[in-house]
Amino acid sequence: MTYLDSSCLLKIFWEEPESGAVRQAVSGEQQVIISSLTELETEVQFRARWLSGAINKRRYDAYRRKLALFRGTSPFEFHELTSTIFRRAIEQHISAKLHCRSLDRLHLAAMDELGSRRLMTNDNKQAAAARSLGYEVLTPR
Fold first, then answer.
1. Which of 32, 104, 108, 123 could join 100 via S-S bond, C-beta 3.0 to 4.6 A?
2. How confident is the model at residue 16 (pLDDT cuts 50, 70, 90)?
3. How far is CA 101 from CA 98, 110, 128, 141, in A?
């Protein structure tokens, strides 16, 4: 079970240098977890691109439809998070060997809540923090 963060999920939608590697890595997974936190961050980025004029409304709506289609598409599994991730994130932060940003810490707490020990990310700081907690990290590039 691999937890997918937004740095990788977004690369499935638009072209960035690592997009091909992320798509290939995801296609090789049997179970890819998308948490409600990852979904929120992805929706925020879609909207930011539309509101900034980087994409038009039609493209924005298409991205949102495609994300919704992932709900019924293997290997993706969407999981809601509970409020307990905040307490988990605080506990991880207090005992952590490495500093990481709040949202990254919440993703790591979400992984813990969902029982995932494997993270797919292109965020180097988040990857280092995950490794310090003993998680396996995939960084498709």
1. 104
2. very high
3. 10, 14, 12, 22
